[in-house]
Every structure is written in structure tokens, then in C-alpha cells.
Design a protein that fits this description.
By secondary structure, the chain is α+β, with helices and mostly antiparallel strands. The chain has helices at about 5-35, 55-65, 85-100, 130-145, 160-170, 175-190, 200-225, 230-260, 265-290, 300-330, 350-360, 365-380, 400-410, 430-435, 470-480, 490-525, 525-550, 565-590, 595-625, 630-665; strands at about 70-75, 110, 115-125, 150-155, 420-425, 440-450, 455-460, 485. The protein has a four-stranded antiparallel sheet with strand order 2-3-1-4, with helices on both faces. Strand 2 (about 110) and strand 3 (about 115-125) form a beta hairpin. Helix 11 (about 350-360) packs across helix 19 (about 595-625), helix 16 packs parallel to helix 18 (about 565-590) and helix 17 (about 525-550) runs antiparallel to helix 20.
Length: about 700
């Protein structure tokens, strides 16, 4: 066998070996991927800040006799006033619940002063920390306590809220995956205009998603990484969004190379050499940005970092190995009916990006100034963002638990229906109880369980839950009760807000520094990376500003999630720099080939503009899927990231980065060697571009 025949045999074997390798990897990952849902937790302690008072309260309550308490409030209401028959019905239903489940103490009804409402606080340690048992208890209580003859019965309380939120997070699995796949499929069909090609990257992305679930389960088992409904949903979106972006860039370059190389194998090798560094750098930037979340003190944010990184890296591995193997085996016919023939030239036509590049090239400083003013004006909208979202406002469609809270707030304005939990050393329980009762804003306090050297005290405040007055009461309790911990649902919200503020101060600089260092290493420049980082920060501010203009006035959202600023920043900076890398890497490639600065910038825009636009649309659409979920934090996060990606794609990359590069000339590569090559004489007008 000659050398040429050996080479051809090897070329035919490599794609099959890669596919066989992936089949083996998936076979190994399969048992673990199927278990990821079993280790997903959406309990309060999975989201709380690690060292906050409310976290310590939740952990100590888990260790008290009976474990974690399931706290419910049954709310009986009739608009015209409760009748004797209504009270008798409530008593029978409570007795049935007490007979079927082990309750802590005997539930006692508390009538409202206006006679329209009767509430029964119900507590049970029966489920402990088992979320499924808690959900089953809540479902059983709701089955027993049902409406009757005009009497409305709602089941609320912290545990009912947690159950209702858990149902929304459970819906992230199937519906979110199916919706994401459908959205990506439609966009790929429109982009490729081929009956077959769109299916290849979609199947490869699905393979990467399955692998990511197995790896995420392994991280949970090995390092205890928090897996929640939110983090798993975001991981899936990143796999399909980022993975499809990488596929678009690779397929576009592969199509170019098929016109220059006779064999698909050689064309794919050239495509990987051409765009591989940009794809590796972009995925590395996203991974580095997400891993910076490990510095966060908030459990939910810290757990999202590794899972998001797993999603991006699995997508990268699939798109740089499995996708090329499948494309090479399918050959040119995968592009039918627009098959790129060897030796052919693409059809010459004027494109949108040619027009954009021409305008940016003619008046770069004017375009740059106008874009900066526009982004700055949009960012001012962030001043209109609503305050921190309350628990009852965090659902798009009000569940039973939220209706119960609203009824209680109207019927019992003189007291809170949501307890504040105090955990104190057992030997100081009496003095702590007395101090609690003497605190301004406290209506009542009673001792609960004791165990492990700690005693539980349940406190009822005079002010409504999550009001300014109740917040003041909680802070006063924390100040007065040294050595004790103050927690509960409202205290948790305070800690979430405070910890998110702390995390922003810590994580944001780390993200900016890590992304900047990666860009400096890739582009061999300081100026170009600074341009890209400044641009993505401006996009983040503008996207938040647009959110402030529409969240409350248009969407009717009554609050902003405390973690929105940090998470949207990390995702927009990490993902936004992706497109800058695609553009700048091609610009540097053109400069190395001898093109003068303006021509290099405009040629890079012409050759990558369509790919960047397609990738941006896909990524924005995948995150927009979150806006169809039932929780306000997910809707807000999906909206801000989607809008930011679109701004980045069609304004910042297309106009601002290009115009800045044209205006700076070779100085954009300072202090690299490209900046030291003298500029040729610049023509009077920017060249007309065609594609």
C-alpha cells in the first residue's frame, strides 16, 4: 500500500473513530445523566448565602428533633363573613389533617377582626429535609382542605411557597428543553436553507447536553456542587446556545474551505485551523467568566458557575470533534441545495453588513460617539428598575400559596402571618425569649423545639412580611440577640439582597480581569481587549436599562430579583466577548496577511458579520425561552440577556467595535508588532464591500 493510499485510509478512519469514541463516552455517561434530577435541590438552604444568619437557622433546624419543619397556613375566607358552618368545616378539615399526619402541637384557629377570615398555622416535622415528602404533605393538605359552598380555602406558608416554586423549576426540564430545541431548529432551518444541514448541529448539541448532565452529576457526587432547577436549566440553554454558535462559525468556515479544497477532510482541517483558535478562546472566556462565580457567597450563584462551565465545555468538545466527523462523512451533499463546489466562487451580492461596514468606515468617530450616547441613554433606564421582588410577587401566575398570603395581608393588617425564626443557645433560651418579647415590632413569641444545644423561638412581627417595618424588626433582633441567629423567609430575603451586593463587589472585578487577560493573550494587544471589555460592559448597562423601562410598566413585574445584576453581568460579559473574539480574530488574521487597518476591519465584518448575526439570534432566542417560565427571576434574567445579546450583535460588534478599529488604525493592536507597521495612505472613502 502506497503512502497516498495510507493517508486516504487514515482520513476515512478518523471520523469513524471519533464517532465511536463519542458513542463510548455517552454509554459511560448515560447512567449518571439519568440521575441528575435526583440530586437537584430547590430548598432554601441551596440558595441562601453560606455564612448568613438565615443559613445557620436553616441548618440548625435540620438538626433539631424531627428535622426541618414544614410550615403551612390554612386560610379560610368568605367575603360576606364566615358562618358557623364555615368554622365547623374548618375544624373538621384540620382534625382530618391532624389525624393523617404528625403535627407539631395542636393547630389553633386565629380569626380576623373583620370576621371574614380564619387562619390555622400548621407545622409538621414528618417530611424532614425530603423535598418529595414535603411536596406530598402539601398536596395532601390541599386535598383535604378544599373549597366548599362558597367558602374559599387556600394553603400558604413558607413550605407551600417552596412547593409551588419547585413545580416551576421541575417544568424547566421537559418544556424548557423542548422549547429550546424547537427554537434552535427553526432558526437553523432559516439560516441554512437546507433540509438536512440544520439537523446535524442540533443533534450534536443534544448529544453535548446529555453528556453535560452526566458530568454535572459527577461534580455533585465528587465535590458537592449545588444542582438546582435554575442552574440545570441555564446549563441546557448554554449547551444549545453556545454550542450552536460554535457550529455556525465552523460550518461557515468549512463552506469557504470546500471551495478551495477538493476533499472534505482537507477542507475541515483548514476550517478548524482557521476558526479553531477563536472558538477555543471564546469558550475559554465564557468558562473563565462563569468559574468566577465560585467567588460568590450565594449558594445558587456559586453552583451555577461550575454547571454553566460544564455546559460550555461539553458543547465545545462536541462541536470541535463530533460535528466535524459527521460533516466530513456526509460530504458536500449535506449543504444541498446550496452545495459549495470545489473551485467555485460564492455569488457576489451586496449584504447588509457591507452597508453597515461602509457607513462605519466613512465616519468612524461619528458612529462611535452616537453609539456611546445611545447606550448611555438606555443605561439610565436602570434607575427605573423596581425594588427587590417579594416572595408573593415572584410568580408570574399566582399559585395557591400566594393567594393565601394576599388574603392574610388584607385580613390581618395588625400582624404578620409569616414567622421569624430565632435560634438561640439552649442555656440562654429564657433570657432570649424575654429580649425578643421586649423588642419593638414583635407581637408574640413562643418557644419551640430544643436539641443539640439550641432552642427554637417562633416570633410574629406586627408588620406585614418583607415590609420596611418588618425589616427593621429583624435587624433590631439581630442587633440585640448576640450569639443567636435570626432567620425565616423574610430574613432570608434580606440576606439574599445583602449577599448579592457583596458578590457584585467581589465577582465583577474578577470577571473583568480574567476576560481581559484571555483577550490580551489571544489578540497580543492591550487596546483591542479594552475596547471589547468596555463594549460588553456598556451593553450590560443598556440591557438593564431597557429592563427598567419595561419590567413594571409593560410586563407588570412588581420587583427585581436581587441576583439579576450579577448573573446578567457574568453572562453578558462572557458571552458578549465571544462575538468580539470572532470579529477581532478575523481582523487580526487579515492584518497579518498584509491588509491595511480599515480594510482589515471591514473585511472582517463582511466575512464574519453574517455568522455573528446568526449566532446572536440563536443565543438570544435560547435565553428568551426563560421568559416563558413561571418565575419572575427567570423571566428577568432571560429578558436582559436576550436584549443584551441582540444589542451586542447588531449595534456594538457591527458598528462600534468596527468604527473604533477603523478610527484607531494600527494603534488598536498596541503594543503588539502589528501596531508598529506603518499605516499606508488611507483612501478618501471606505471601500465598498460585497459578499
Amino acid at each position: 500500500m502506497g503512502a497516498a493510499e495510507t493517508t486516504r485510509t487514515r482520513r476515512r478512519a478518523i471520523p469513524w473513530l471519533l464517532i465511536a469514541l463519542w458513542i463510548g463516552v455517552l454509554a459511560v455517561a448515560s447512567p449518571f445523566a439519568s440521575k441528575l434530577a435526583d440530586v437537584q435541590h430547590n430548598r432554601v438552604t441551596d440558595y441562601l448565602p453560606a455564612n448568613a444568619d438565615s443559613t445557620q437557622v436553616a441548618k440548625i433546624q435540620d438538626r433539631l428533633p424531627g428535622g426541618e419543619s414544614t410550615e403551612l397556613v390554612l386560610v379560610y375566607h368568605r367575603d360576606g363573613g364566615l358562618t358557623a358552618a364555615d368554622r365547623a368545616t374548618a375544624g373538621r378539615q384540620i382534625a382530618t389533617i391532624a389525624g393523617q399526619h404528625t403535627l407539631t402541637g395542636t393547630p389553633r384557629g386565629i380569626p380576623a377582626k373583620d370576621g371574614t377570615t380564619l387562619m390555622y398555622p400548621v407545622t409538621s416535622n414528618e417530611p424532614g429535609t425530603d423535598e418529595k415528602k414535603r411536596d406530598a404533605l402539601v398536596a395532601d393538605v390541599r386535598r383535604v382542605a378544599h373549597d366548599r359552598d362558597g367558602l374559599t380555602v387556600d394553603v400558604g406558608g413558607p413550605s407551600a411557597l417552596a412547593t409551588d416554586a419547585g413545580k416551576v423549576y421541575e417544568s424547566l426540564g421537559g418544556p424548557l428543553l423542548y422549547t429550546t430545541v424547537a427554537v434552535v431548529a427553526v432558526l437553523l432551518i432559516l439560516i441554512y436553507r437546507s433540509p438536512l444541514l440544520w439537523l446535524v448541529p442540533l443533534v450534536v448539541a443534544g448529544t453535548a447536553d446529555f453528556l453535560s448532565m452526566g458530568v454535572a452529576y459527577g461534580l455533585n457526587q465528587a465535590f458537592g456542587t449545588t444542582v438546582s432547577g435554575q442552574s440545570q436549566g441555564v446549563m441546557t440553554i448554554l449547551v444549545f446556545g453556545a454550542g450552536t454558535d460554535y457550529a455556525l462559525l465552523l460550518v461557515s468556515r468549512y463552506r469557504e474551505e470546500l471551495r478551495r479544497h477538493e476533499r472534505p477532510y482537507d477542507a475541515m482541517r483548514a476550517a478548524l485551523r482557521g476558526c479553531g483558535p477563536a472558538v477555543l478562546a471564546s469558550s475559554g472566556t465564557v468558562a473563565a467568566g462563569l468559574l468566577c462565580l465560585l467567588a460568590a457567597d450565594l449558594n445558587s450563584s456559586r453552583g451555577m458557575g461550575p454547571l454553566g462551565t460544564v455546559g460550555v465545555l461539553c458543547a465545545l468538545a462536541a462541536m470541535l470533534t463530533l460535528l466535524p466527523a459527521v460533516l466530513v462523512l456526509l460530504g458536500r451533499r449535506v449543504f444541498w441545495p446550496l452545495v459549495p463546489a470545489y473551485g467555485s466562487t460564492p455569488k457576489v451580492r451586496r449584504s447588509l453588513f457591507a452597508a453597515m461596514g461602509s457607513s462605519a468606515g466613512r465616519r468612524p468617530r461619528t458612529v462611535l460617539a452616537a453609539g456611546a450616547v445611545l447606550l448611555g441613554a438606555l443605561a439610565l433606564g436602570a434607575l427605573n428598575l423596581p425594588g427587590t421582588v417579594k416572595q408573593e410577587d415572584s410568580f408570574i401566575d399566582k399559585p395557591d400559596s400566594v393567594v393565601a398570603m394576599e388574603t392574610l395581608a388584607k385580613a390581618y393588617p395588625e400582624r404578620s402571618a409569616q414567622p421569624i425564626d430565632v435560634i438561640t443557645p439552649a442555656d440562654r433560651a429564657d433570657s432570649t425569649l424575654a429580649a425578643v418579647r421586649d423588642t419593638d415590632g414583635v407581637v408574640s413569641a413562643q418557644r419551640g423545639r430544643t436539641g443539640g444545644g439550641w432552642t427554637e423561638i417562633s416570633v410574629i412581627a406586627a408588620a406585614p412580611p418583607q415590609s420596611a417595618a418588618e425589616t427593621a424588626t429583624i435587624k433590631e433582633l439581630r442587633h440585640a440577640l448576640k450569639g443567636s441567629y435570626v432567620g425565616g423567609p423574610s430574613a432570608q430575603q434580606i440576606d439574599l439582597e445583602d449577599t448579592n451586593a457583596r458578590d457584585r463587589l467581589v465577582v465583577v472585578p474578577i470577571v473583568l480581569l480574567s476576560v481581559l487577560l484571555i483577550l490580551v493573550a489571544l489578540l497580543r494587544s492591550l487596546v483591542a481587549p479594552l475596547i471589547l471589555v468596555t463594549a460588553v460592559v456598556a451593553v450590560w448597562g443598556a440591557a438593564l436599562g431597557i429592563g427598567g423601562l419595561v419590567f413594571e410598566p409593560l410586563f407588570g413585574l412588581n420587583g427585581t430579583d436581587p441576583g439579576l445584576g450579577l448573573l446578567s453581568f457574568v453572562f453578558l460579559v462572557a458571552l458578549g466577548v465571544d462575538y468580539g473574539i470572532f470579529l477581532m480574530h478575523r481582523m487580526r488574521e487579515e492584518s497579518l496577511n498584509g491588509a491595511e487597518p480599515a480594510a482589515a476591519a471591514l473585511t472582517a465584518l463582511r466575512t464574519t458579520g453574517g455568522v455573528i448575526a446568526s449566532a446572536g439570534l440563536v443565543l438570544a432566542a435560547t435565553f428568551a425561552v426563560l421568559t416563558n417560565m413561571g418565575l419572575v427571576p427567570l423571566v428577568e434574567l432571560g429578558f436582559v440577556i436576550s436584549v443584551g445579546v441582540l444589542l451586542d450583535t447588531f449595534l456594538v460588534r457591527t458598528y462600534l467595535v468596527t468604527s473604533a478599529s477603523v478610527a484607531l488604525g494600527r494603534r488598536v493592536w498596541w503594543p503588539g508588532r502589528l501596531s508598529r507597521t506603518p499605516d499606508p495612505v488611507r483612501p478618501q472613502a471606505a471601500p465598498e464591500l460585497v459578499s
